TrEMBL record:
Keywords: Coiled coil, Membrane, Transmembrane, Transmembrane helix. The chain crosses the membrane at residues 32-53. This is Putative efflux pump membrane fusion protein. The keyword GTP-binding does not apply. One of its GO terms (cellular component) is cell envelope. It comes from Enhygromyxa salina. It is found in: Cell envelope. InterPro entries: Single_hybrid_motif (IPR011053), UPF0194_transport (IPR050465).
Length: 444
């Protein structure tokens, strides 16, 4: 110390005048070390400014089952009744098909009543089926009768037309005979006037003419009658066809009614069969392998309706996933395939946000999808699955559904200085734009 004082004493007159100041000065080695430390700190800060920094989006969530069928679900009552017996306790593991509870109905004769109701409706269905068969047979018979009556009426019309043709020919023949008799009468009268024939011949010719004239009149009357008969039989043919068609339509209406009754009875039988099948299932079975989480229905104290909750069931987990909730402003930055670091509750971990490779105790994951819409709080749900590789997630026996999770969704790498500047100014993280196809769109 004295040597240092002597050394400093020759520095300046002020030092010589105030030796106490010399005694309180830092040693030279300390000052040199401080300068080196300051320069080193400045260099470290400068290096950190240009050091790489991995941006991330933080979120909190929980462990879930990736398959919706393996998530927590409610077992419902299949029928109306009361829980008479519980075969399980809360927290007990069950296998698919194991009976977990039995239900009894208030009416002990319910199955017998349903059976009687089914028999009555089944009888109605059989009767309706018989009515359908009768209606179908009646329609077939009426169709045959319509064909037969139509053929008969057509034959009668044809016969009347033949008689009409014969009457026309008879009229023509009678007219010819009348003209012949008229000529013969005129000839006999001329001969009588010349005295070449007797009056008897004239009278016979007159009689023959009148006979032929009368026959001509009868032939015309027969022709008129034949013509009217043709019209009448034609109208009768149409009437027969209309009556037969009306009878067939009436029978078809009866058939449709019988078919409707048959369909109604058949549907009622199916409903009763379904109700009977449900009523016969007086037991509630486990839908899958899993654990009874909570018993809801009270034994012998609560009346249940079909669909009422009976117990809460957690299926056995085969594929775990994590759902993270992130702030709405970060939702558009997250895309499927992004890497994630996860910290599970109960597993000690240290996560270096900017340097994920230096993290300890965290597990890797990959973003599967992001919900298309936010929840009522403006947050987006991100579903993360295991990334595989050398860092598998804990076994499902330990990593149960509902375990709380902290997650960091990794984005792009920037400089630490830029990240500090971004944080100070409140700018969003940097995300590389997605490659887009098509003319006028951004490409890779």
């Amino acid at each position: 110390m004295n040597a240092d004082i002597d050394h400093y004493a020759f520095g300046s007159p002020l030092d010589h005048a105030r030796p106490s100041l010399l005694a309180s000065r830092s040693p030279r080695a300390a000052r040199v070390f401080a300068r080196i430390l300051g320069v080193g700190f400045a260099l470290v800060v400068l290096a950190l400014v240009f050091a790489p920094w991995r941006q991330s989006v933080a979120g909190q969530g929980r462990v879930i089952a990736y398959a919706p069928l393996e998530r927590q679900q409610v077992i419902e009552a299949p029928i109306e009744g009361r829980v008479s017996t519980w075969h399980v306790q809360e927290g007990e593991r069950v296998r698919a098909g194991d009976v977990i509870a039995e239900i009894s109905d208030n009416d002990p004769e319910i199955l017998a009543r349903i059976e009687r109701e089914r028999n009555a409706v089944l009888a109605q269905a059989i009767a309706a089926e018989g009515a359908v068969e009768v209606a179908e047979a009646k329609i077939a018979a009426l169709q045959l009768a319509r064909e037969a009556k139509g053929m008969s009426a057509e034959l009668r019309v044809d016969m009347s037309r033949n008689r009409f043709d014969a009457a026309e020919q008879a009229v023509s023949a009678a007219a010819a005979a009348e003209r012949t008799a008229s000529l013969n009468l005129e000839r006999q009268r001329a001969l009588f006037d010349e005295g070449l024939t007797s009056k008897r011949q004239v009278e016979l010719a007159q009689m023959e003419f009148e006979t032929k004239q009368a026959e001509h009149g009868r032939a015309r009357a027969s022709l008129t009658a034949a013509k009217r008969e043709v019209g009448a039989l034609g109208a009768d043919r149409e009437h027969v066809g209309a009556d037969a068609s009306a009878s067939i339509e009436e029978a078809r209406a009866s058939l449709r009614k019988a078919e409707s009754e048959l369909a109604k009875a058949t549907a009622e039988v199916q409903k009763i069969d379904s109700r009977q099948a449900r009523q016969q299932r007086m037991s509630i079975e486990a839908p899958r392998d899993g654990t009874i989480l909570r018993i809801i229905a009270k034994q012998d104290a609560q009346m249940l309706k079909p669909g009422d909750p009976v117990a809460v069931f957690v299926p056995e987990l085969t594929a775990s996933a994590v759902e993270l909730w992130v702030d709405g402003k970060d939702g558009p930055l997250i895309t499927p395939g992004r890497h994630v670091r996860l910290q599970f509750q109960g597993w000690p971990a240290v996560q270096f946000v900017g340097w994920p490779s230096a993290a300890v105790g965290t597990f890797p994951g990959v973003v599967e999808f992001v919900d298309a819409t936010a929840d009522e709080h403006g947050r987006f749900r991100v579903v993360v699955s295991p990334a595989g590789g050398d860092e598998p997630w804990p076994d499902a026996h330990w990593l149960r559904q509902g375990v709380r999770v902290n997650g960091w969704i990794l984005l792009d790498t920037v400089r630490l200085g830029f990240e500090l500047w971004r944080q100070f100014n409140g700018f969003p993280p940097v995300v590389e734009p997605l490659a887009m196809d098509g003319a006028g769109k951004e490409g890779t």
